[in-house]
Amino acid sequence: MCKIFGITEHVRLQFRAEAFNSMNRVRFASTNIGVTARAHFGRVTAQANDPRQLQGGLKLIW
Predict the structure, then answer these.
(1) Which of the residues 18, 37, 38, 61 has an alpha carbon 20 to 30 A from that of 54?
(2) Which residues pair with 60 in a beta bridge?
(3) Is the pTM of this model over 0.70?
(4) Is 21 exposed, middle or buried (0-12, 13-18, 19+ CB in 10 A)?
């Protein structure tokens, strides 16, 4: 999303908002198959992607 505001005739302010993984979908990591990790063998104990992230920014254009 991007919105540009006119401050004066030659100066503008741009507002930008971005979203990553906006639906907050989970992608699980692979199962633990190491024989040394007996307590966690066969379990999924991690997430492969990042949770929802939002960021915004301002840019002054002259």
Answers:
(1) 61
(2) 13
(3) no
(4) middle
